[in-house]
Design a protein that fits this description.
Elongation Factor Tu (Ef-tu), domain 3, 9 helices, globular, alpha+beta, Aminopeptidase, about 25% helix, single chain, eight-stranded mixed beta sheet
């Protein structure tokens, strides 16, 4: 990954954008893509589309990622000034206590910590993990009045961790899920613009994926692509203790995954596999079951069926503040998807033959 791409990725990762409050993160993505695209547009809820206009007779390919992340929201403020929480998306209660957090208020960020009773003061049977609704944030306020001067009920929170560089090409941080997807979409757009490809490319950063793919449902009809490539994280299962529970064999650093099954369209699966083989790009195959839990589920049923496929970025420790990726997998995803975009005419039309 070159320095330009790294700086863009870090800016995306370090900008908080919890589900329903994605504006700041979407603005980073829009500003970046505006320097490349023929057109950038948004809708009422903040879904963003950046377009490279290709040949009118060539296919239109959408490359999507979701820009939102998991987090918390202030549910109530008690008499002593502590903030009580609800979750946004699939926040993991086992890793939230004892974390630094940032409350995103209208007047700017407010720092706090999610309280955890010291081990010395807990009874032996108190180690059961409390639900998010039983956890609280300490912002240092003396009482309810002082806390209410700082925050409002309904303000969102995110864990305050940033990006850390590990060994080699490994990075760790919160919100890899799924800034790596929006980064990939923007980089495929860059490739299309710099190489003036025939296909029209619509790079997309959706909102509200973490609560059911709402943003993709909003934007899918108007996108009207011939095919869609949905880039999201996928579980890297190469860590200790997972062997008996593995659903798939996906390893960090072995390339992006190409998913096979519902709703992944077989023509698109074959296109990506062909490009990877022809260009000697490592990829991993991932078996699907009944649902992807990604924006592909929202897109493929629209307009009578939009051929869609999932490309996964292997990620360790998903939905924690220390998600880990390998940037080689990330750049590999760009190369394979961009290669398929280059050859879109050869793979179209994207339809199965009965």
């Amino acid at each position: 990954m070159d320095e330009r791409g790294r700086e863009f990725l870090f800016e995306l990762l370090e900008t908080a954008a919890p589900t329903g409050f994605e504006t700041a993160g979407q603005r980073v993505w829009i500003d970046h893509c505006s320097e490349l695209a023929d057109e950038v547009r948004t809708d009422a809820y903040g879904n963003a589309v950046a377009i490279h206009e290709g040949d009118p007779d060539a296919p239109t390919i959408a490359v999507t990622g979701h820009g939102d992340e998991i987090g918390f929201v202030v549910r109530r403020i008690d008499d002593d000034g502590f903030l009580h929480l609800s979750r946004i998306g699939g926040t993991d209660k086992t890793v939230s206590r004892g974390q630094h957090v940032t409350v995103r208020t209208d007047d700017g960020p407010v720092r706090g910590v999610i309280g955890q009773t010291a081990i010395h003061l807990r009874d032996g049977d108190d180690d059961e993990v409390a639900d998010i609704t039983e956890q609280y944030v300490d912002v240092g306020a003396a009482d309810e009045d002082e806390a209410r001067e700082l925050v409002d009920v309904g303000d969102p929170l995110t864990v305050a961790s940033g990006v850390e560089e590990l060994q080699g090409s490994r990075l760790s941080g919160r919100a890899m899920d799924n800034r790596v997807g929006t980064w990939t979409a923007a980089e495929v757009l860059r490739h299309a613009v710099e190489n003036d490809v025939d296909a029209t490319v619509k790079a997309v950063s959706t909102v509200q994926e973490e609560v059911g793919g709402n943003g993709a449902q909003m934007i899918g009809f108007d996108l009207d692509p011939d095919a869609a490539v949905v880039v999201d994280v996928t579980h890297a299962t190469d860590t200790p203790g997972l062997a008996p529970k593995r659903d798939v064999d996906v390893a960090l650093g072995e390339g992006p995954s190409i998913r096979r099954g519902l709703p992944d369209h077989p023509v698109l699966v074959d296109a990506l596999r062909t490009v990877a083989a022809d260009e000697d790009r490592p990829v991993q195959l991932e078996a699907a079951s009944n649902t992807t839990k990604t924006d592909a589920n929202s897109l493929f049923v629209q307009r009578g069926g939009i051929p869609s496929v999932n490309v996964g970025i292997p990620t360790r420790y998903m939905h924690t503040p220390v998600e880990v990726i390998d940037t080689g997998d990330l750049t590999g995803a760009v190369e394979v998807i961009a290669g398929a975009v280059d050859r879109a005419d050869a793979f179209a039309p994207f339809a199965v033959e009965p």
